């Protein structure tokens, strides 16, 4: 077995356990909501119409968006009641997945309950059953196979959608998929998909067994299905029951550099005796908040991001002044400790092909503005909405012919192949040098500085051992080394895992 | 003949569905222990009338008494447990064995003890073999299912039986059999029975009294003998005319051959 597979499989038990936990919780909660609601809806067509419409509407929201929506919602709610609700991890994932599971359960339960043979209903009434007795003796047993079929559908959907809960900081098999997609580590993607598919299929088969047991009135069959599911649940969640002390969580956003730096930080913490967990693939908006609440203990951010997104500043400052103000602001407003800059920048940099740069003598953003009406612009999915783009446009009269968004993976090839003529690259990305792209200067200093900085949760900022383990990283990573490390992970052939790249970086720290 | 069944009294009872007067101001006395057949054309209000007695349908106006007690003063489910109800679609519970179907009324009343004996007794009563007890409803023929329906209604020993075309959709031979058996049962147990039927010949054979309904009203209330003698009004006469003509035709055929 290759190292890539070993590394992927090593993470599976814990992620599988978390995946099972979140899916089962969401499914149970959805059943708890839907079954009483369905009983009510079966007695009142108006309730049925409203409930089913709402559930259908929820279903039309893409899963990723639904998860993301709960973050601000829970933050607002938490603020409203004076704190105490975590908008990170389990809760938002639980709520979103539960909402997602409502429709199939509700629809099938209502169909099943209202579809009970009218003759059986009349007989039940004629025999003098009360409403509850009718439900217990007649309606529920006759609707059970249909209800089970709905639960089955919901289970498969939920297990699939649970992979998305990675984005709000709830560990799941999606961690493997997101990390793998980002670093083009197909082994990870495959492992994530295989295990979540296997989980969905086995749960579906077992629920199918129970469904058949109910339909054919074979108690043994239903009992066996339930027993196997219970046993599976126990085994799958076992890793969660083993509690560990001294566990620290290293956060990472969703690109290779972040994965590598998280592994670098994690390995140093492990060496210092900490038990390390990783929360990868966190959204930019989520990660800082998660840190300030102590949901994660440490992560790497960039000065310009904190400056514009958190501090809402748009003024230009020198690098040193910026870092100084950021350290003061994070400490004063959230108790977050800034443990110094790592020594390199990862800023938005406009990159062009070398032959274009030569023929059209492009050196600066002023030169780019001159030719921009002939240029097609390739960018990542968020840049056009970010304040930096506004700042650039304010400073330089750039008007591109067209603008298209790519995932970072495809942005560099698009420039190389001539599909676009200029891209908003990341300055520490190894693919700039590898493709021989030319970075254009920003003489007016329109783009703020993006120094990589280590941020520590309030509790860890006071933990001397923790600080001592990470202090040597301050100023120790050159942009050349970071590019090289990123490239070994991002390139097509002879790919390294983030952990391997982190090991290499650690061996090549600047003294 | 022991009489355990109650009498029934309807006072000016009406029930409308939108513009349809399903039952229109019916007043009626049914004597304890009698077997009354309710006949009439389709849509004349027979089922509606029957279901008002066990409150499956609530009247818009008027009052119904069982014995001296107004039915509206009794909780519907309590009332219905005292009344045996059999209807054309039978409504056996497909997920329960025949034994459990028959004993379900006892289970509801909390009389689980001795219910196996009672089931065996009822199977004998409706002349079904004992081994049907463990079968499921879909493993029985239509006629057998009808018998189970009757057995289920009798399980809690109700004094009053309401039967809405209980033997419809059966072949004439089986139907005739079941009718005869039920008549014997009715007499043996001293029940009060109201039975809805389309078949005038069946009603004439079975009933102590025959009620003829039309447009939600009772147009005739007579014994079979009175009906046949033609003194019960033209609606009754129209219904009696058919079996009478058929009988005459059969007799004529018999003479020819
Ligand atoms: N639930 C209902 N909603 C609306 N109209 C109804 C309802 N039940 C009965 N009716 C109407 O009331 C009238 C009497 O119906 P009912 O079922 O009592 O007739 P019936 O004599 O039993 O007929 P059949 O011999 O066909 O069973 C009919 O016109 C029928 O359409
Ligand atoms: Mg009818």
Please specify the SSE layout and strand pairing.
The complex is a heterodimer of chains A (511) and B (257).
Chain A: H1 3-43, H2 45-60, H3 63-80, H4 90-114, H5 118-126, H6 131-161, H7 174-183, H8 186-215, H9 219-241, E1 247-251, H10 256-271, E2 275-279, H11 284-292, E3 298-302, H12 303-310, H13 319-334, E4 337-345, E5 348-352, H14 354-359, H15 365-371, E6 376-379, H16 387-395, E7 402-405, H17 408-416, E8 422-426, H18 430-435, E9 438-439, E10 451-456, H19 458-461, H20 464-470, H21 479-490, H22 498-507
Parallel strand pairs in A: 1-2, 6-7, 6-8
Antiparallel strand pairs in A: 3-10, 4-10, 5-8, 5-9
Helix pairs in contact in A: 1-2, 1-4, 1-6, 1-8, 1-9, 2-4, 3-4, 4-6, 6-8, 7-8, 8-9, 10-22, 21-22
Chain B: E1 8-17, E2 20-30, E3 35-40, H1 46-53, E4 61-66, E5 69-70, H2 76-81, E6 83-87, H3 98-108, H4 115-125, H5 142-154, E7 160-164, H6 172-189, E8 192-196, H7 200-206, E9 209-214, E10 217-222, H8 224-228, H9 234-256
Parallel strand pairs in B: 3-8, 3-9, 6-7, 7-8
Antiparallel strand pairs in B: 1-2, 1-4, 4-5, 9-10
Structural write-up:
The complex is a heterodimer of chains A (511) and B (257). With 511 residues, chain A is an alpha/beta fold. Chain A has helices spanning 3-43, 45-60, 63-80, 90-114, 118-126, 131-161, 174-183, 186-215, 219-241, 256-271, 284-292, 303-310, 319-334, 354-359, 365-371, 387-395, 408-416, 430-435, 458-461, 464-470, 479-490, 498-507, and strands spanning 247-251, 275-279, 298-302, 337-345, 348-352, 376-379, 402-405, 422-426, 438-439, 451-456. Chain A has a 5-stranded mixed β-sheet with strand order 7-6-8-5-9. In chain A, α7 runs antiparallel to α8 (186-215). Chain A starts with a helix and ends with a helix. With 257 residues, chain B is of the alpha/beta class. Chain B has 2 domains: 8-82 and 158-256, Rossmann fold; 95-150, no CATH class. Chain B is built from 9 helices and 10 strands. Chain B has helices spanning 46-53, 76-81, 98-108, 115-125, 142-154, 172-189, 200-206, 224-228, 234-256, and strands at 8-17, 20-30, 35-40, 61-66, 69-70, 83-87, 160-164, 192-196, 209-214, 217-222. The mean pLDDT of chain B is 89. The chains are: A alpha/beta (511), B alpha/beta (257). The interface between A and B is medium-sized, with 20 and 22 residues. Magnesium ion (MG) binds next to α1 of chain B.
């Amino acid at each position: 077995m290759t190292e890539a597979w070993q590394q992927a499989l090593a993470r599976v038990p814990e992620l599988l356990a978390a995946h099972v936990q979140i899916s089962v919780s969401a499914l149970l909660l959805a059943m708890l909501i839907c079954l009483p609601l369905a009983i009510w809806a079966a007695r009142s067509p108006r309730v049925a119409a409203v409930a089913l419409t709402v559930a259908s509407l929820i279903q039309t929201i893409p899963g990723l968006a639904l998860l993301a929506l709960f973050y601000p919602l829970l933050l607002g709610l938490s603020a409203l009641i004076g704190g105490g609700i975590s908008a990170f991890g389990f809760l938002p994932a639980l709520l979103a997945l539960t909402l997602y599971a409502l429709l199939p359960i509700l629809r099938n339960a209502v169909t099943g309950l209202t579809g009970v043979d009218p003759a059986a209903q009349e007989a039940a009434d004629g025999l003098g059953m009360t409403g509850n007795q009718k439900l217990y003796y007649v309606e529920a047993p006759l609707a059970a196979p249909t209800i089970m079929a709905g639960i089955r559908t919901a289970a498969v959907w939920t297990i699939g959608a649970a992979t998305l809960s990675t984005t709000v900081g709830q560990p799941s098999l999606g961690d493997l998929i997101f990390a793998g997609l980002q670093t083009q580590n197909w082994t990870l993607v495959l492992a994530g998909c295989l295990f979540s598919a296997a989980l969905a299929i086995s749960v579906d088969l077992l629920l199918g067994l129970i469904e058949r047991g109910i339909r054919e009135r074979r108690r043994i069959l239903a009992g066996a299905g339930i027993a196997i599911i219970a046993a599976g649940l126990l085994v799958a969640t076992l890793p969660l029951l083993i509690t560990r002390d001294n566990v620290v969580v290293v956060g990472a956003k969703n690109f290779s550099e972040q994965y590598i730096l998280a592994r670098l930080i994690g390995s140093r913490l492990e060496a210092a005796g900490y038990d390390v967990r990783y929360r990868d693939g966190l959204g930019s908006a989520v990660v800082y908040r998660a840190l300030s609440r102590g949901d994660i203990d440490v992560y790497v951010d960039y000065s310009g991001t904190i400056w514009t997104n958190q501090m809402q500043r748009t003024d230009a400052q020198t690098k040193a002044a910026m870092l100084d103000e950021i350290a003061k602001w994070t400490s004063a407003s959230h108790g977050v400790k800034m443990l110094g800059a790592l020594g390199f920048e990862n800023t938005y940099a406009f990159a062009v092909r070398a032959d274009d740069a030569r023929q059209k003598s492009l050196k600066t953003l002023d030169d780019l503005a001159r030719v921009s009406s002939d240029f097609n612009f390739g960018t990542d999915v968020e840049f056009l909405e970010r304040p930096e783009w506004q700042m650039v446009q304010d400073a330089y009269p750039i008007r591109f012919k067209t603008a298209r968004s790519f995932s970072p993976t495809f942005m560099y090839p698009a420039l190389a192949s001539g599909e676009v003529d200029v891209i908003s690259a990341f300055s520490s990305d190894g693919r700039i040098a590898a493709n021989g792209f030319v970075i254009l200067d920003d003489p007016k200093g329109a783009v703020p500085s993006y120094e990589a900085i280590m941020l520590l949760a309030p509790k860890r900022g006071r933990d001397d051992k923790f600080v001592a383990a990470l202090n040597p990283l301050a100023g120790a990573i050159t942009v050349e080394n970071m590019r090289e490390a990123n490239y070994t992970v991002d390139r097509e052939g002879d790919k390294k895992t983030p952990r391997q790249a982190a090991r290499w970086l650690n061996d090549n720290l600047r003294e | 003949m022991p009489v355990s069944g109650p009498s029934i009294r309807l006072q000016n009872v009406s029930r409308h569905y939108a513009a349809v007067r399903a039952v229109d101001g019916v007043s009626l006395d049914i004597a304890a222990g009698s077997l009354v057949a309710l006949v009439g054309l389709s849509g004349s209000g027979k089922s509606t009338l029957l279901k008002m007695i066990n409150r499956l349908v609530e009247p818009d106006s008027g009052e119904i008494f069982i014995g001296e007690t107004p039915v509206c003063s009794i909780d519907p489910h309590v009332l219905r447990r005292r009344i045996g109800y059999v209807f054309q679609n039978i409504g056996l519970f497909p997920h329960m064995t025949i034994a459990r179907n028959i004993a379900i009324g006892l289970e509801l009343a909390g009389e689980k003890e001795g219910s196996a004996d009672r089931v065996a007794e009822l199977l004998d009563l409706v002349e079904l073999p004992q081994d049907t007890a463990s079968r499921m409803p879909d493993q029985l023929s239509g006629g057998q299912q009808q018998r189970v329906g009757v057995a289920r209604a009798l399980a809690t020993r109700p004094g009053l039986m309401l039967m809405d075309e209980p033997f419809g959709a059966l072949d004439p031979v089986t139907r005739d059999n079941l009718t005869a058996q039920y008549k014997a049962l009715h007499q043996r147990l001293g029940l009060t029975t109201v039975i809805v039927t389309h078949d005038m010949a069946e009603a004439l054979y079975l009933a102590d009294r025959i009620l003829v309904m039309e447009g939600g009203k009772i147009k005739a209330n007579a014994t079979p003998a009175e009906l046949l003698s033609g003194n019960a009004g033209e609606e009754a006469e129209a219904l009696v005319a058919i079996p009478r003509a058929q009988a005459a035709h059969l007799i004529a055929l018999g003479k020819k051959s």
